[in-house]
UniProtKB/TrEMBL annotation:
Span of the signal peptide: none
Segments of skewed composition (Low complexity): 31-46
Entry keyword annotation includes Nucleus: yes
Organism: Cladosporium halotolerans
Protein name per Swiss-Prot or TrEMBL: Xylanolytic transcriptional activator regulatory domain-containing protein
Lineage, broadest ranks: Eukaryota, Fungi, Dikarya, Ascomycota, Pezizomycotina
This protein's UniProt keywords: Nucleus
Length: 538
């Protein structure tokens, strides 16, 4: 479920600084599998670009259309006027912010030392700068123009180019984290269709097009896997089907260790997905697998959970088999991957994200089958226990596992590492962790002592604080905090109050009477439409 905010289209044109002549933001040149270079990607829209996007078909129609057509940017569609560009100093600053705060969480472009030699097309270079813009403090003077430039470029027809896949993948992450899930899904669908048409999923693609550059070859492989991760993870969060990346018959070789990638010393013979799957049957099962491999494995598992839910599969054996797979993921990690923090104090972000994704998968599997309250409680529910109906004893196992997964997410939030260096995908994990802790707290309010409730409260306060900090960069986190705080105020501030003899209302708990959740399901906190109708319109 997603939280949605509405952006007012920018009314500033791209040529408002006619008196200025900015330097070009990126060098131009075609790389293998790149046929054209065109402008870049955004977070807000000019009137023209907004109108153009409104004419685009919906997400499902787009996916079908891109299956059947190859879109090449015609020469006539290129804007005749000179394209807007960033000042050289601003571009350098934003590029530094991208590599300082974002790159290690989503490391599929080349490492920073190799960036200038790639001569990425303008639209990809500006998309990288757009990501860096999320971390810019104070804000960039030309922020609105950058957003407009990227938006305009991403609204263009898609050429069959690896760089287009990379730009769309980056932009999808920004859109998802800016509470624009439909546009994010559209970008993922477009990127998936281009990638499949190019054959990026073929194990031989990267070596064929890498020009004998180990770093570029690794980047091409990572670009497919990052698209796969963004596709499957966002599909799981928003409960819609993934695109073709999860069903492709071929898959590239797996990513190497990040330290090797940064140094430009990539593995000569990376492992395959089959090697990763079969490692558990080998005597030396821990050799040659980077933490990026375990991140891929975690995303595959959350994809299986989504497929089970989509099929409405209630077969206990299938549910248990998936539960076993999630539990065994932890058992089959090598000893060096037991802790996300190394002896030197560095955090392995790939392993951090993998653990976060596994915890989300456990919650998605077990929370709907648990005896925890299914709906968001009102003040009267809390005091008068309307949500507490007896469930079959077997559901208690699901409750315990869902609560344990939410504890794991809270533990990850306490890892001593700057939050702004984590993936924005951690936002959804924090929301899920809060949801389970609040559901458990609303049930335990009348069933356990103050120590138990204090533990729920401390975890919720921790995760809300993390969301507030991430909200400084990403609207998704900022807008998640308000409804979660409202619910937490209902659930946790009531812990010391006596149960009243008469039914209570929102007025009784000093909560705004207009803030009714209307029997909203907990998972509806991730629904764009429901969240907008129930919370953000007030």
């Amino acid at each position: 479920m997603t939280l949605v905010c509405t952006y007012t289209p920018s009314r500033r044109g791209l040529n408002r600084r006619n008196g200025k002549r900015a330097e070009r933001s990126a060098t131009h040149g075609n790389s293998p599998a790149t046929e054209t270079t065109s402008p870049a990607t955004p977070t807000s829209f000019t009137d023209d670009s907004l109108a153009r996007l409104r004419r685009m078909p919906n997400m499902q129609q787009e996916a079908g259309a891109y299956d059947n057509h190859t879109h090449t940017l015609p020469a006539s569609s290129v804007v005749a006027t000179a394209p807007w560009s960033l000042r050289s100093s601003d571009r350098s600053r934003l590029l530094d912010l991208f590599y300082t705060h974002f790159f290690r969480a989503h490391p599929f472009l080349v490492p920073k030392a190799f960036y200038p030699a790639q001569k990425y097309p303008r639209y990809l270079d500006l998309t990288v700068c757009l990501v860096g813009l999320q971390y810019a403090k104070p804000a960039l003077e030309d922020a609105a123009a950058l957003r407009d430039a990227v938006s305009l470029a991403m609204a263009e027809s898609d050429e069959r180019a690896v760089h287009r896949v990379q730009a769309l993948t980056l932009y999808a992450i920004v859109l998802h984290s800016s509470q624009r899930p439909r546009e994010a899904a559209s970008c993922v669908g477009r990127a998936a269709n281009i990638a499949i048409s190019l054959g990026m999923n073929d194990p031989g693609f990267a070596s064929t097009f890498a020009r004998e550059s180990p770093v570029l070859e690794e980047s091409l492989r990572r670009s497919w896997w990052e698209l796969f991760i963004v596709d499957v993870y966002t599909a799981a969060i928003h409960r819609h089907p993934a695109f073709q990346t999860s069903t492709a018959s071929l898959q590239p070789l797996l990513p190497c260790a990040h330290t090797l990638y940064e140094a430009g010393r990539c593995e000569q013979n990376p492992p395959t997905l089959r090697n990763l799957d079969d490692r558990v049957f080998l005597a030396d099962s821990h050799a040659a697998f980077s933490s990026s491999c375990f991140r891929v494995e975690a995303v595959r598992l959350i994809g299986r959970v989504s497929a089970l839910a989509a099929a409405d599969d209630t077969d206990p054996d299938n549910i248990q088999a998936l539960d076993n797979a999630l539990a065994s993921w932890e058992y089959n990690l090598p000893p060096s991957s037991k802790d996300v923090v190394s002896a030197s104090g560095e955090v392995d972000l790939m392993l951090f994200e993998a653990r976060s994704i596994i915890s989300c998968a456990v919650i998605f599997l077990h929370f709907p089958r648990s005896d925890l309250p299914a709906t968001v409680p009102t003040a009267s529910d809390i005091h008068c226990m309307r949500n507490h109906t007896q469930q079959p004893p077997i559901s208690r196992q699901h409750s315990i596992k869902a609560i344990a997964a939410s504890k794991n997410i809270a533990n990850l939030a306490s890892v001593p590492w700057p939050l702004e260096k984590h993936s924005p995908f951690f936002i959804c994990a924090l929301v899920l962790g809060c949801v389970v802790q609040l559901a458990a707290g609303s049930m335990h309010l009348h069933q356990c002592g103050l120590d138990c409730l204090q533990q729920h409260r401390d975890r919720v306060v921790l995760m809300l604080g993390a969301l507030q900090r991430l909200g400084e960069m990403w609207p998704l986190a900022a807008n998640a905090v308000r409804p979660l705080k409202t619910i937490a105020g209902i659930v946790l501030s009531a812990r010391n109050e006596e149960v009243p003899s008469e039914p209570c209302s929102f007025q009784d708990s000093a909560i705004d009477p207009n803030e009714s959740f209307n029997d909203m399901l907990w998972f509806d906190l991730f629904s764009a439409e429901d969240m907008q109708n129930n919370m953000l319109a007030m």
